[in-house]
Amino acid sequence: MLINKEFNHFFDLLSALTIKEIKARYKHAILGILWIFINPLIQMIVIGFVFSLIFRFEVKNYHLFLFTGLLPWNFFSLALNKATPRIVWDRSLIKKAKFPREVIPLSMVFSHFFHFLASWSLLIIFLLLTHQFGFFRPVVVGSQFLAIILLLIFTSGLSLITSALTVFYRDIGFVTQAVIMFGFYLTPIIYPFTAVPQKFQPFFYLNPLLTVFSLLQRPLVPIPLPTIVIFGHVLIIVLTLIIGWSFFKKVAVYFPDWL
Amino acid sequence: MNNFAVKISKVSKKYILHHEKPTLVESLFKKSEVFWALKDINLAVKKGEKLGIIGPNGAGKSTLLKIIAGITIPTQGKVETKGKIASLIDLEAGFHPDLTGEENIYINGLLLGMAKEQIKKNFDKIINFSGVREFIDSPLHAYSSGMKLRLGFSVAAHSDPDILIIDEIISAGDEKFRKKSYQKMQEFFKKKKTILFVSHNLDVIKKLCPQTLWLDRGKAKILGPSKRVISQYIKT
Description:
Chain A is mainly α. Chain A contains 12 helices and no strands.
């Protein structure tokens, strides 16, 4: 009963803070909530026209390949970059009341996830308009759904770790930024995994996002990964959340002393 | 003794002194200095008791309140509390300047541990008490600082706590609101709430709290009837 009550309160608080984050962002913009769609639209136009003219890999429908990779990557990098310093920014909250601290980084992740879903729904409309029905096969929808869930789990787990560490070491924000920058090029997003030279491929196996992006881009390029690698990545992603959360819980009691 | 609300045994709180926030490199090579904000505090507050806490700046009053509120944990010792605690500390924290008063009430209430239904139920009371009804749809940056404080106090005051922790905020707002919050406090007193009250205003403490704890440099100097403790405190 008490557990249930606590869980409800956690959920209410998390959704209130997530909505706050989304609302506050568009409150005083004249176009308001429309920006949720305008932003990704502009982004897709830029990607579609400019990016795909400059870079070219042997991928059919390269612009679609880019959309399906870049939109989720944007979510991942933005959410992680914004969530990491968040506890330090919200120090007055931490010192004011006792509440589950996890809601601070997680609300950042979820508000960006909301933005991502908006951009993803635009992509779906685009796919329908351009008759890309290959994207709507159940197996594709299924693997993309799985990939998005995995990405959400991974982002949540990582942001719990980085936001907590930032309280003790302010350097973590810079480290995260740098790693994300490298990660962009070390993850097959703007190029297919098959373009990676054979001898380097095992190194790429260390990156759990490889599975996420392979699943996302499945209708355009085959998934070249051994099954064992895929399972390994899923395991790493789930463990990241479990370890991240328990680490966060463990150190969260010391936050007020360091802020 | 089974009817206590707060029981603290041998509580100490150590802070590591940082002259600058440590960077990764510094923290590996520099030895840290420590500072005991509280040392061996024992305290038992009965249910319904009102305890004033006084002492000079840096005596550890706020640290003690934060430990009791569960905001921070003691380095040593044990803290037991019974019932829901509301802390009237830093009332404006958690307000978002771009959101309306209404939206902020909701978020602030949740942060203070109120349930969604409880906030909805008390919504009108909170607005009425704060006296900012005509501004409730405006973003918070349009509020004066007094209005923000009143709203913050009002939310916390309506969270229906069993234990109320107050850190020097009774002086919030103008004369009219001060009277109102003083009345609200009295209401809490009548309801047999447990109250822990830090203030430099010795008269208010004398009026509201039968018992007073005098803290000095992290140690409990005297605990006893307010009149006696305060008269000794004034002498120093």
